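Tokens as discussed.
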């Protein structure tokens, strides 16, 4: 009887730890992602990762702000291993709020240039988007264009359209200009833009380009993938890209990127997924899916973006877009840019 009881207890213990081991093994084969990028842009990459590694990827998509709020509310209880979002300003904010952890990866350091990643390794760029000039070639000659700063010149009076300052893309552009020119000079430039507006700021980049194509203004500033998507749908629109600041500074760029969450339960697999997403193969697919540029300089560009021509990019670390974003918002408000 005594031996039978002992044997039964040992069996129970073995079964208990076996169940724990099975649960741990199952969890080790899964990465959970919170993504501000839509499903059709990320699922093909996750499927390819699972095919190569056997590690499943579960993901939730939502707006940037909602995902950051969710991570904050969940704290240590969060199931998320990775946060993917657009704009360095959003990634910087996530790091500032303590939602991400530092990652030391020789693979990520080799694949992602220094100016496209957090100096503390809390996030890494996965795609690059250029915020550049789009113009109507029926109304503007390319030699009339030169820089972002030149769009403040009175010659563009009633010829400029801009997206609202409420969107993070323009906030980051102005933040990067503050890093380059200082607040006083940047405010002067932004006031010049406002003085040259042909209409009130518009809701999005596509709307701004439609105004340019219709002749309601002549030039605007947009993220290149919006241009690519619009021209794919309406190839006959009178629109063209111009790469500004090629003699000084370079084109303003930003990123979509990702980091491992501070309370990830599976950081090893999370880092493995990030490393995969930074690889040449994944980067080329990423770029193709949304007409963005690969963050890994060794990866192939999409055929569409190659057609736009090469350009010199601004090499200021995109972390400045986050660090100076609050100043940028206040500056735009003072300048009357709504």
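Sequence:
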């Amino acid at each position: 009887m005594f031996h039978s009881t002992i044997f039964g207890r040992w069996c129970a213990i073995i079964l208990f730890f076996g169940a724990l081991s099975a649960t741990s093994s199952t969890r080790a084969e899964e990465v959970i992602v919170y993504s501000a990028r839509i499903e059709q842009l990320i699922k093909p990459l996750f499927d390819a990762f699972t095919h190569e590694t056997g590690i499943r990827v579960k993901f939730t998509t939502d707006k940037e702000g909602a995902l950051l709020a969710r991570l904050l509310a969940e704290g240590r209880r969060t199931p998320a291993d990775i946060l993917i979002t657009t704009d360095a300003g959003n990634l910087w904010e996530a790091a500032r709020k303590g939602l991400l952890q530092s990652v030391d990866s020789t693979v990520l350091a080799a694949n992602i240039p220094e100016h496209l990643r957090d100096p503390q390794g809390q996030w890494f760029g996965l795609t690059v988007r250029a915020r550049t000039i789009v113009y109507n070639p029926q109304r503007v000659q390319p030699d009339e264009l030169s820089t972002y700063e030149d769009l403040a010149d009175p010659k563009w009076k009633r010829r400029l359209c801009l997206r609202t300052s409420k969107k993070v893309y323009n906030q980051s552009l102005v933040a990067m200009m503050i890093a380059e020119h200082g607040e006083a000079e940047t405010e002067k430039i932004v006031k010049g833009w406002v003085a040259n507006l042909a209409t009130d700021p518009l809701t999005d980049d596509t709307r701004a380009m439609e105004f340019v194509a219709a002749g309601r203004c002549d030039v605007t500033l947009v993220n290149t993938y919006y241009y690519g998507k619009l021209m794919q749908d309406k190839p006959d629109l009178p629109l063209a890209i111009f790469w500004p600041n090629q003699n000084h500074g370079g084109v303003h760029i930003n990123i979509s990127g990702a980091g491992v969450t501070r309370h990830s339960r599976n950081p090893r697999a999370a880092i493995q997924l990030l490393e995969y997403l930074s690889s040449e193969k994944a980067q080329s697919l990423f770029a193709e899916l949304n007409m963005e540029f690969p963050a890994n300089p060794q990866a192939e560009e999409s055929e569409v973006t190659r057609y736009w021509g090469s350009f010199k990019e601004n090499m200021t670390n995109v972390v400045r877009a986050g660090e100076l974003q609050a100043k940028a918002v206040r500056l735009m408000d003072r300048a009357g840019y709504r």
